[in-house]
Every structure is written in C-alpha cells, then in structure tokens.
Write a structure and sequence with these properties.
The chain has 461 residues and is an alpha/beta fold. The chain contains 18 helices and 14 strands. It starts with a helix and ends in a 5-residue tail after the last helix.
Length: 461
C-alpha cells in the first residue's frame, strides 16, 4: 500500500489507505500514523520520499513514547477521579479511551498484577505498549497512568519502576496476619489508648486495649514492610509514582479503627499515600455485583471515606467492576473523589461479543472453562455454583449472550481467562475474532465502563 500517497494527498483518504483517522500525528517534519494492514495494524512514518512501515512492537512503542509525550504514562492519582481499567488482552484500550473522553475521570490504562501477567503470558512491557498504542491511535491526550498492581516483592516493584510505571500498588497481604493473635506493645498503648481521635465531620475513632493488641498483631509487620518499600524506592530511589497501599486481599474486612491505625502509623513515618484499598465488608467478588448487607456497607464506606479525607489520600476500591448497587454510595461518600479498579470486566465483554457473533466458538470455550474451573479457583476467591449455569446443549445460539447476565456464568468465564488464553486451540482464533469485531468490542467496553461511571455519579466532561 502506498502510504506516501496518503500523506501527499493531504492525509484525507483514510479509508482508501486503511489509516486510523485519529492516529495521524506530525513531529519534526515526520508524519506518523497507524494503518490497518489486514491481519494486523502497522505503524507508518513518512518523511519526504522515505516511508517506513513497522510492526506495532516494543521498539515502535518506545519510539512513540519518545516522540509523543502523551503516549507515555504519567502519575494521575492526584486527579479527583481515576479508574484502573486493567486490560488482559491488550486490545481493550481502544474502547477505554472513549469512556474517558466523555467522563471527567482519568484512566490507568495499564494495570496488571503479576498474577495476571503470569496467567496471560504477558510482561509489564507488553501492558505498557498496549496503552501507548491505544492513546496514539485514538489521539487520547488527557493523560493515563500505569499501575504495577498488587506487587508483593521488591523485585516486582523494581521491575515496574524501571519501566516507568507511574503507580505502585503494594500488596501487603503476605505480611498481614489473620485474626487470632495479639501483641501488647506499651509504646502503642501510650499512643492510642484512652484517646479520642477526632477525624472531623463529627467522626471520632477510639481504641480499646484488646482491640489495639489485635490490630498491632495483624498489621504490625505490614506497616514495617510498606515503610521499608517507601524509604527504599521513593525516598532513596526518588521514584516518581503514586503509591497505593492495598490491604484488601485479606480474610476479614478492614474495620475503620484498623484503617485509621494503619494510615496513622504510615503517615507518621513519612509515607505519602496516594490511595489506600481497605477490604470492605461483604463480598467484592470479581465481575459481579456487590454481595452482602448494603446498609452496613454504606455505613462503613462513610467512615472509610472520612478517614481517607482526614489523611489526604483517596479511597481505592478494588474488584470494583460491576458493583452497580454499591456505586451510588461510593460516589456519594467519597464526594466523587476516588480510585476505582476494574480488571476483568472488559475480558467478559470480549467474550460476550464472541457469544453474540460466533456461538460455535463460544460454546467450545464455555465447555473448556467448565472442565477447568477448579484449576482456576486456585487464583481467585469466588462462590460460583456451576449447577446454576444453564446447560448449553438446551440453549439456542440467541440465548448465549444472556449467560453474561448470570453471576455464576460470568464468574465461570471471568476466572478461567488464563487457561483459555494460553490454550493453543483458542488463542489465535479469539484474537482473530476480536480483530474482526474490533469496533463492536470497543463500543461494548465503552458502554459497560461508561455505565460504571454513570452509576457512581462521575460528571461528564
Ligand atoms: Zn485488590
């Protein structure tokens, strides 16, 4: 294809040249754009008579980040509303950018945990490159972040920072002890007992002796670990990234007193938190609505939000996809200042589009997921009842997309993504399908995440 003619023709005949209209950018006399070359997209650079066409690989992404600063992630958590939209497929960003053109929030387009990387056979480089390509092709210039999500080890923190990730989510779960012990610490008793901590808005936090000993036991080590990471990489290392503390992957919910204690200790030691992710009461399971007592959730959300305001960070809501019944109170109590994390819901949308347009392929994937469901529960906590999933043999093709309205079948597909995507039988066929239905997928993602933001009360731009 003669891309030079596209440039000489004034970059107007987009269709004739398979060029993505918003991707045309110029810098230093070179015109860059992304074109659809059939089975794949290519990056084209034209300067005078010189036309270079290259694959959308890591070098191409590095080049774009160098030439066009908006394609490089930046710290965005300082923005009132931020949403992590982890993309396990590397193709969801094209739909995600549409959402944030419309709603007044900034995205963390690149957000994967080590668990997700392992399960999808990807690297942090791949994840960042996918974000760069998405914003470049769609000309999304508002800024986006990159979150090394649920990092537990120093080496993973180093890996993410080395690549220029702009947010670190430190997962302290391995340093958080389960309920059952207590540590009596005179120093802490002097600091916390017999005192009333006024966090404003008419809210106070107090500690009794037993509770304090329990909290020191559960969180003591985690606080030390988070402080050490902060001092090593942020104070000494000079990292310019948003720091999130995640204490959500624990067995028991984080009580307001526990939340306050952890935050008070960390800020007292000089740790600057951009966000904290407590574990809320009830169940925040992947890909389905909130499970639990909504009244109690609202009451606790109110205090968690007050604590966050008091210390000056944002509350981070993990496993935040599809929590439609909880969104209104989250928006209200945080006063529309929050970080919401979603991860796999765009994968579910991708599979829903498969169910709509390629029922045969969907049926194969579904059968495979059923067969391998137990393996996948090693990685995710869900209460899925496979018996509640309709037998596909009695469903017509038209009924397949309806499966994505049922919690149990959503979770079946939600947690088996790694096994499905790493399976040779499916990987290429699925990606080929998504390429063919790219526009429909982008719209599905945009409308689904858009519904999240609308329900939480996010203003439009
Ligand atoms: Zn989490």
């Amino acid at each position: 294809m003669n891309y030079k003619a596209f440039v000489e023709g004034g970059c107007v005949d987009f269709k004739g040249f398979g060029v993505y209209p918003k991707s045309v950018h110029e810098a230093d006399g070179v015109v860059y754009f992304v074109a659809d070359a059939g089975e794949k997209d290519v990056l084209v650079a034209v300067k005078g008579d010189d036309v270079q066409v290259c694959d959308m690989n890591h070098e191409a992404a590095e080049l774009l980040r160098k030439v066009f600063p908006f394609t490089k992630p930046v710290p965005v958590l300082g923005n009132p509303r931020t949403v992590g939209v982890g993309d396990r497929l590397g193709i969801a960003g094209y739909g995600h950018t549409r959402v944030f053109e419309k709603y007044d929030a900034l995205p963390i387009l690149c957000q994967q945990s080590i668990r997700e990387l392992n399960l999808t056979n990807r690297t942090f480089e791949d994840v960042m490159d996918a974000g760069t390509f998405a914003v470049f092709r769609e000309n999304f210039t508002k800024g986006f972040g990159a979150d090394g999500d649920h990092l537990k080890l120093r080496e993973d923190v180093e890996y993410a920072l080395r690549l220029g990730y702009t947010m670190l989510t430190l997962d302290c779960s391995e340093h958080i002890k389960e309920d059952g012990g207590s540590v009596v610490c005179p120093e802490m008793e002097a600091k916390y007992l017999g005192k009333t901590f006024d966090i404003g808005e008419g809210q106070t936090i107090t500690f009794d002796k037993d509770e304090l000993a329990k909290i020191v036991y559960i969180y003591g080590e985690a606080i030390d670990y988070a402080t050490e990471i902060w001092e090593t990489y942020f104070v000494k290392g000079g990292a310019k990234a948003d720091f999130e503390l995640s204490i959500d992957e624990t067995m028991t919910p984080t009580s307001p007193a526990q939340h306050f204690f952890v935050a008070n200790e960390l800020t007292g030691r000089g740790v600057k938190l951009a966000t904290v992710a407590p574990r809320f009461c009830g169940e925040f399971q992947k890909g389905v609505d909130y499970i639990g007592d909504l009244d109690q959730f609202e009451k606790e959300m109110k205090v968690h939000a007050q604590i966050a305001r008091y210390f000056g960070y944002k509350l981070s809501i993990h496993s935040g996809s599809d929590k439609f019944s909880a969104f209104p109170s989250i928006g209200r109590e945080t006063r529309e200042i929050f970080h919401l994390k979603t991860a796999g819901t765009n994968w579910l949308e991708a599979m829903r589009v498969v169910a709509i347009h390629d029922p045969k392929l969907y049926r194969e994937v579904h059968a495979f997921a059923l067969e391998h469901f137990n393996e996948a529960t090693a990685y995710y906590h869900v209460t899925t009842d496979l018996n509640k999933i309709p037998n596909l043999a009695v469903l017509t093709d038209d009924e397949l997309p309806g499966l994505f309205k049922l919690n149990d079948s959503r979770q079946l597909i939600h947690i088996t993504y790694g096994l499905i995507l790493q399976n040779e039988k499916f990987h290429d066929r699925l990606y080929k399908f998504w390429r063919k239905y790219a526009e429909e997928y982008a719209e599905a993602v945009a409308s689904h995440i858009g519904k999240h933001l609308e329900t939480i009360g996010c203003p439009l731009r």
